[in-house]
Amino acid sequence: MEKLKEYRKQKEKASPTKPVENQSDDRENDGDESDDSKLFQSLLQGSIVMENVKWSDVAGLEGAKEALREAVIHPIKFPHLITGKRTPWMGVLLFGAPGTGKTYLAKAVATEAYGSTFSVSSSDLVSKWLGDNRMLVKNLFSLARKRKPSIIFIDDIDSLCCSRRENESEASQQAKTEFLAQMQGVGNDNEGILVLGATSIPWTLDPAIRRRFEKRIYVPLPEEQARIFMFKQHLGSSPNSLTESDFVTLGQKTEGYSGADISIIARDALMQPVRMVQYATHFKRVRGAVWNDPGQVMDDLWAPCSPEDPIAVEMTWKDIQDSKLQEPVVSMSHVLKSLSNTKPTVDELDLEKLKEFMEDFGQEG
Q1: Who's near 298: CB < 8 A, 6+ residues apart?
Q2: Which SS3 state, helix, strand or coil, does residue 360 take?
Q3: What pLDDT is recorded for position 19?
Q4: Which of 164, 228, 318, 341 has the fewest C-beta atoms under 10 angstroms from its C-beta?
Q5: Of 319, 333, 323, 332, whose CA–CA distance to 283 is shortest?
């Protein structure tokens, strides 16, 4: 957008008496549209992303995964199966409470699709200059057609495509009209292009936009088995003493928590032993593996301990050589303490609205 502002300033200097409002209207007549298109497309090049999230990294959501495979993966990997009347979906909407994994699903699609993926937010398609919103949308689709098979992922699409209102700005109206035309307009060839949208408030979408998303997939809160998987995934290879029964207990205790909530709990639990090291006043010598070379075992590592420990030495972490500090272990008590301090962020009223929308317009994932 900074490049776009500089370009605008140069145009104004070249024609200072020409009103800004008319510049976008006269583009097609003054022969500058091709130059503008190149500029807009160069700005949108940065939205092309490469992800490394596999289906196996996404906990649960089997229904949503299957629907996305049908809409995206199969047409790209097996085009000979999608012929005649068997046509792929052109628009898929992922809707659900915040933190349930909609964006993570989109990353998995980008990894598995083997095509170009354009990841944009509504703010990427908004400009203060009249006409630029429309041109950004138009050139996004134009660039996607050049690089097909491609996926256009728009996060928080409700900001761009909310219901039209009488007092709405002209720029916003132009962007919506262009979006509608590009998705299913006359003369547009969208073969090999999928528009993937994500929103947590789908009921605010314009009805015409909603209709163009042929598949509307509900992404619910994670089930118990998915929550267990998430705790294991977020703790990862960090040293911990949790058993399988501990993970089952955590899965049972986190009913109503989103994936993002569980991520916060795990991250806080991982930091608790580090805090213990920071505030410890006594340490003791222990035997253990070197943090950056697990195959090497040393007898002179230091670990925090109670002042009453028989071999405790009064010191702080600042007195210990970097390589001699034993990596602390996360315990079940650490995770339970983080859980008690973290409340679920999903509102019950929003959940009810999402379920109503799913019953009226959606498909359960």
Answers
A1: 287, 288, 289, 290, 324
A2: helix
A3: 43
A4: 318
A5: 319
User: How far apart are alpha carbons 79 and 83 in whole angstroms?
Assistant: 7
pLDDT at 81: 77
Gyration radius from the chain CA atoms: 26
Q: How far apart are the first and last CA of the chain?
A: 37
* pLDDT tens by residue, 126-173: 665 656 777 888 888 888 888 777 888 888 888 777 776 666 667 677
What's the rounded Cα separation, in Å, for the pair 181 and 195? 13
pLDDT recorded at residue 18: 42
Q: Which residues contact 157 (CB under 8 A, 6 or more apart)?
A: 93, 122, 197, 198, 199, 205, 209
Q: Quick check: helix, strand or coil at residue 36?
A: helix
Residue 143 CB contacts under 8 Å (≥ 6 apart), including other chains = 41, 44, 45, 118
Query: Distance between CA atoms of 198 and 262, rounded to whole angstroms?
Result: 21
Region of residue 60 (phi > 0: left; psi between -120 and 50: alpha; otherwise: beta): left
Q: Tell me which residue of 178, 122, 140 sits closest to 45, measured CA to CA.
A: 140
Supply the pLDDT for residue 167. Answer: 65
Please count the other Cβ atoms lying within 10 Å of the Cβ belonging to residue 297: 11
Using 50 as the pLDDT threshold, list the residues of the chain that sit under it.
16-33
